[in-house]
Specification:
By secondary structure, the protein is mainly beta. It has no helices and eleven strands. The protein is elongated and about 55 Å long.
Length: 125
């Protein structure tokens, strides 16, 4: 029932900007960390940046000073503002969130990671 829906990907020239959004929906009890990962062709999926419910942020060294993560808890949405994009940023970007649900009859909340469908970001040189 829980899903993460991403939007905002596209094609941009080097030096340009994009803003990604990821909205969670469904029967959600609580959300801890939310963040972004990416996977380029032929490479492993890697962490880009994450933000906890308390506002603590982690970032990959490769995006420091260029990407900014933020979240709106009321909207259950996480954003990624990407500036000064480089060709090496080209990848499929995946939203991730650690979410608790309380299915009918469950004695306690159940925590697990959820993933968005991915959105393509292509940066041309």
């Amino acid at each position: 029932q829980v899903q993460l829906v991403e939007s905002g990907g596209g094609l941009v020239q080097a030096g340009g900007s994009l803003r990604l959004s990821c909205a969670a929906s469904g029967n959600i009890f609580n959300i801890n960390a939310m963040g972004w990962y990416r996977q380029a062709p032929g490479k492993q999926r890697e962490l880009v940046t994450t933000i906890t419910s308390g506002g603590s942020i982690t970032e990959a060294d490769s995006v420091k000073g260029r990407f900014t993560i933020s979240r709106d808890n009321a909207k259950m949405t996480v954003y990624l503002q990407m500036n000064s994009l480089k060709p090496e940023d080209t990848a499929v970007y995946y939203c991730n969130a650690n979410i608790a649900t309380t299915p009918i009859g469950a004695p306690i909340p159940i925590w697990r990671d959820y993933w968005g469908q991915g959105t393509q970001v292509t940066v041309s040189s």
